[in-house]
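debug: dumping io for the single-chain case to check the tokenizer round-trip. Nothing else runs in this session.
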Amino acid sequence: MNKIVIDRNKETPIYLQLYSQLKRFIENGSLPPGYKLPTIRSMAKELGVNIITVVNAYRLLEENGYVYTRVGSGTYVCEGIQRDRDLIEDIELSEHREIPVKKGTINFASSSLNPELFPVDEFAELINRVLKRDRGYAFEYQDSRGYKPLRESILKFVRLYGIETGVENIQVISGGQQGIDVVSKALINFGDTIVVERPTYSWALASFQSRGADILEVNLNKDGIDIEDLEDKLKKFKPKFIYVMPNFHNPTGILYSDEKKEKLVGLAEKYETYLLEDDFAIELSFTETDVFPLKAFDKYDRVIYLKSFSKVHMPGLRLGFIIAPEKLVSSFLKAKYVTDLTTSGLMQRAFDLYLRENIWKKHIEEVKGVMRERFEKMKEGLTQLKSYFEFDIPKGGFYYWVKLKDNWKAVDFYQKCLERGLLVVPGDMFFGIKKEDNFLRLSFASCDVQEIEKGIEILRQVLSEGQNENEMYLPII
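debug: decoded output
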């Protein structure tokens, strides 16, 4: 086993140092699945620590799905910690249309709208107006914080969602993924703890892990994150921040209750941490009840609000913004500056007019109409297949999150669907630690109604054929 180093001069408790190092050895494969860890007594003797220290470290590993205990035998590394990275990376890239799918393939994976839904004509006119008005100045480097008139337009935009802030707290970014990267660079030091929802956005996990963060997962209930479990982890670990998607969560589609949003903000204040709110689809609400961001409940300046315009407007814009708590404004500015200096000036100036003149409202209403129709069609189809899997009906966004029955593994299901011309996303990729291999995320973002009908039929074929195979080859024991 790799050498474990305990530093008694560190403020970090020794049991957390031990837990963190063992976790890394498991994640990087140094301790493979099935490996038997040293006994508690021998590990304590080897490191010169108290037995209780090792007990606490092993218990944390077990709670987070890294190891399991066999009574009378010992502690073993769990299966399924390592993933098939090539497969997962291909799925992630195809989700963002960075890998073209075979012609004719029905895409239930992509989170991007069909290009015909983009407000191209409106933007062409806006870009021409900017070029005539600003000439060469449109191509100058902008302030790293962003084009000030755009930040003023964003200020008016967020007030519609109950957010009160100042222009100086708004940082323009080149899309939501850059926003996550900027926050990671500004706040995460190697070995810091970050709390995420379970499941969560896979590219956010990758960003946090690339900075050397220790990831703790907290389960989601139907109305949002498990508050009791979260508070327990806040007491123990003092995380740098909590990453959440409270409105139409990716991948589950969950919408947090207002009560839970208020409790979450209260916990952040109580335990002196921050909440990173990732808002990519609040505009796509299919409920009559008003939906507000977590930031609208932020009485204590504890919420870092990250908003992308890419998914609902046009992916190629690569535009979004961060609303930073007062204490973090300069940190985010520095992180943005070293990332890419500034976001496209031409796009910022055009998008300023797009917001300022309320052109976005017409686009959103058109998109909501189309997406609502697709949402209903997928709901209708999945309901007909409910004997094969479990799912809840979301109240907005892009996704259905389904749990497969009959011992299906999501990656196997993904491959069988792909053979028949349907691309889905296996749920494994949304779990950071202990994988759940029987979930699928199905998106209706980029398929028309006819394609959704065809996709549902492929799901039915794969499910029925798989069920027959399971029945034929069920061993008699």
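debug: round-trip ok. The chain has 15 helices and 16 strands.
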